[in-house]
Amino acid sequence: MADHRVLCWDCGKDVENPYADVCPSCGGLLTIKINLEPLKAMKPKDLKMPLGVWRYAALMPVDASKRISIQEGGTPLYRCDALGKEIGVENTWVKYEGANPTGSFKDRGMTIGVSRAAEIGAKIVGCASTGNTSASLAAYAAKAGMKCAVFLPSGKVAAGKLAQAVFFGAKVISVDGNFDDALKIARDLSEERSLYLLNSINPYRPEGQKSVLFEIMDQLAFDVPDRIILPVGNAANIWAVYKAIIELEEIGWIDKIPMLTGIQAEGSMPVTRAFESKSSDFTAEENPETVATAIRIGNPVSGRKALKAIYGTGGYSVSVTDDEILSAQKLLGRKEGVGVEPASAASVAGAKKLREMGVIDKNERVVCICTGNALKDPDIMISSCEPPIRCSKDLSEIKRILSL
Ligand code: F0G
């Protein structure tokens, strides 16, 4: 376990209350400061565990020997030549987070977050979610033997995610409102200590999510890519990746910084809008709407941290339309055999758009992080593709349909 402190990202004060989700003094966002001094003597070859979150236990703020784990991380990094050719970026890789135990990158943060919950003796954990966080938390709470309550925006959670949350035994509350409303409820309950909040505003969650960056570096033999592209919703993941980059740079494992590039959906783009106006803060949007329900968020809790990640790496942010998202989703499936959910396809759609805009150079080495599995949202796959062809058992009719 790394020696660490929880402190306020805004005013820098130490925060002792383990249930606090913002700074008790100034209301700022929390973060974890890892003491990197002892790590400076360490080299990548000293990592002994297999690829996965716990390979990087030395950079994690919880005790690995007491971990709540379902073997998260260790996901493939695909070299995607056919996709690269289509989008005009020859050196394109896809980090396939859909291969995590519950099918999304959330498992990386949840193994650390739920291990922390166990450490402080929490009995009930909870979160608001557009779907994946709730699926992941429900699974890890089951593994830890904790009670779990999740708050979801009514009618806006993809079928696979909802199925997972109920299947793993969480109390699922469908809130009449959007994600931002559901998060308010979860935070109120956390404030009165009725539950331990495991949304990404909890500073332990992004610590686990740092591991996606550590793995990408490991998989590329620490030959740092030029750019890493990822979808932005509540905006913690891009921050986690940034934090991981800064930590690796500080301990001397990398000597270059990839440009972090955040993609939002056109109907839900507060972070991109802030980037477009060169602002370090964002204005919340009232009625976010997009086919990529995972990132349908108007008031991203970690929006300011996301902007820091983008500006701090010389990165970029752009929005993509629902049509661009669905085309990119299909392109990745049909060129590479890789199935991702719409929000994840936003990163590929963003790569294509930024190449067309000339922001991405054709020789850049680009990694798109694809955050969730296509099976999370089967309805969108079925409705955006050719329907099955109904026919009789007659072989000649089938041959005619297949032009054989
Ligand atoms: N991709 C997927 C598949 C997601 O589920 C999410 C967030 C994101 C991208 C965006 O990540 O919020 O860190 O910027 N899903 C959350 C949830 C909000 O509740 O499952 P972010």
Determine the number of helices (DSSP H or I, runs of at least 4 residues). 14
SSE order, as H and E? Answer: EEEHEHEHEHEHEHHEHEHHEHHEHH
- Helix and strand content put the structural class at alpha/beta
| Overall average pLDDT | 97
How many distinct beta strands?
Answer: 12
Radius of gyration: 21 Å
Q: Give the termini distance in whole angstroms.
A: 62 Å
Let me know the largest β-sheet: 6 strands, mixed
Bound compounds, each kind once, are: ligand F0G
Helix content: 25-40%
Q: In which order are the strands of the major sheet placed?
A: 3-4-12-9-10-11
Strand content: 15-25%
Low-confidence stretches: none
Q: Which overall shape is indicated by the principal axes computed on the Cα atoms? A: globular
Description:
- This protein is α/β, with parallel strands linked by helices and 404 residues long.
- The protein has 14 helices and 12 strands.
- The chain has a 6-stranded mixed beta sheet with strand order 3-4-12-9-10-11, sandwiched between helices.
- Helix 1 packs antiparallel against helix 11.
- The longest helix has 15 residues, at 236-250.
- The radius of gyration is 21 Å and the shape is globular.
- It starts with a strand and ends with a helix.
- The model has no long low-confidence stretch (mean pLDDT 97).
- The structure holds ligand F0G.
- Ligand F0G binds next to helix 3, helix 8 and helix 12.
Features of this protein?
404 residues, alpha/beta, six-stranded mixed sheet, four-stranded parallel sheet, 36% helix, 15% strand, globular, binds ligand F0G
